[in-house]
Design goal:
seven-stranded mixed β-sheet; 9 strands; alpha/beta; single chain; 6 helices
Length: 207
């Protein structure tokens, strides 16, 4: 059984997609053991509690310095003893130690086709605003492993979404979630739970 810990800052729609995938059986041999948010007002915490999942808030704002926050965060992760950490819209820089200990066991969902519109400062609506400003015809979402960079880890899955002429950042964001994010995040978890994902020389191979 793949034990999953999900980290999320906002509403938790991607968390819900994973919860639903497990409930429907499209994600097999996996369970979410804990949800951590840095935001006490995150609706993701409500989603988790509704599903009977252990959920807690660990906010940097409640600690005197970043080191203390990192210690508490690492303790909460270690208590859950996850096999996989899923970042589902988590707007906090991870502690270096966490990345080292969980190398190739942390995945992130990003709302663009990496390497386009990614990296520092590209999150939420900003990604879709920049895509529309650039006038791209196709955008999408990417699931990738997390490394020391920002959106630079090995790519697991990507799915394209067409940009419509009348799109706004909000409409494009919604369609990318519906047509890409909510599909490929559960798919990636299912592949990992099935032992089908391998990383060699910085690239993912799916058996």
């Amino acid at each position: 059984m793949l034990k999953i810990l999900v980290c999320v800052s906002g509403g938790g729609t991607n968390l819900q997609a994973v919860i639903d995938g497990i409930a429907k059986g499209t994600i097999e041999n996996a369970q979410i053991v804990r949800v951590i948010s840095n935001n006490r007002n995150s609706y993701a915490l409500t989603r988790a509690k509704t599903a009977g999942i252990d959920a807690l808030c660990i906010s940097p704002k409640e600690y005197s310095d970043r080191e203390q926050f990192h210690e508490s965060f690492l303790t909460a992760v270690e208590e859950a003893a996850p096999d996989l950490i899923v970042l589902a819209g988590f707007l906090v820089v991870l502690p270096q130690k966490l990345i080292e200990v969980y190398r190739n066991r942390i995945i992130n969902i990003h709302p663009s086709l990496i390497p386009s519109f990614c990296g520092t400062g590209f999150y939420g609506l900003k990604v879709h605003e920049k895509a529309l400003e650039r006038g791209v015809r196709v955008t999408g979402a990417t699931v990738h492993f997390v490394d020391e960079g920002t959106d630079t880890g090995p790519i697991i899955l990507q799915k394209a979404v067409a940009v419509e002429a009348d799109d706004t950042p909000e409409s494009l964001q919604q369609r990318v979630m519906e047509e890409a994010e909510w599909q490929i995040l559960p798919q990636a978890i299912q592949l990992i739970a099935g032992g089908r994902v391998k990383v060699n020389d910085g690239k993912v191979r799916i058996d």
